What does this fold into?
Amino acid sequence: MAPVPFSPIKIGQIDDVQELRKARPATIPERFVRDIAERPFVAKPSMHIPVIDLSKLIEGDLEQFHTELSKLSTSCEEWGFFQVINHGIDKDLLQNIEKVATEFFMLPLEEKQRYPMAPGTVQGYGQAFVFSENQKLDWCNMLALGVEPHFIRNPKLWPTNPANFSETLEMYSANIRGLLRMNYYPPCSRPDLVLGLSPHSDGSALTVLQQAAGSSIGLQILKDDTWIPVQPVPNALVINIGDTLEVLTNGKYRSVEHRAVTHKYKDRLSIVTFYAPSYEIDLGPLPQLVDENRPCMYKNYNHGEYSKHYVTNKLQGKKTLEFAKIQHKLSC
Ligand SMILES: O=C(O)CCC(=O)C(=O)O
Ligand SMILES: [Fe+2]
It folds into this structure.
């Protein structure tokens, strides 16, 4: 097993969920069992997140353009989540990234641990956002890699197995850039007790999420206090608003709380790309979106500081955004 880099953060033993699945323990280890209020229940499949046809925005006639644009604007205001179809990204590329990601997660543990995610960091293989020995764990393995801009890359964490991993990732990121995270959720014998990924909003401006073909339906978003599953549409990409866009639009577009649940028999792979401003950028609500009816809701802050705050706290719904919230009415 590769040595785990020294860290002052004590996170205790983190069992690898794929190894746990193989061992088939009689009960789920306590660290994965959620408190009752947090446990997933059967979500209502009655509502579907909007689907936007990107080709109508790019090459449609004027009427199609306006209809789709107004759908997009409603999706951002009312849902914060939508799927895009006809996005122009080659289907083979979408398949190839799923293939190398699956091949990586199926490697023996020792091989994957050559790229360890150090406690308190977000790149490499393991579980991110774990900061204490008491914290509940997600039923998920992650491989997260900074891809663009170039200087955020940590080449030591880029797998050399499968052999075409880096090449495929480069091609994928030329189309979809940013920090990329691959989440692998093995089946779980008690999906009612655990969460695949804790509820959170994304700290990015915009997130692009690919649900791998054949994966379990695991992504759920919180809308009007109800968890709604995101039904996969073949070759579509799921787009969601992150915290940065909520701040820039002064809350007109909201980042939406979401989570992943597990399945008793099926596994799930998601490939997620986070677009965010550069660390040196200072931002706050756009002045055009602040007036008497919509007073300034967020302070101005440095995105690097926000990112640091995000990655040094556990995932807990929309709590991280409180960093930027103004409690009293103020003019920006
Ligand atoms: O697996 C999923 O669909 C959820 C992934 C996600 O929300 C994330 O990686 O931020
Ligand atoms: Fe997310």
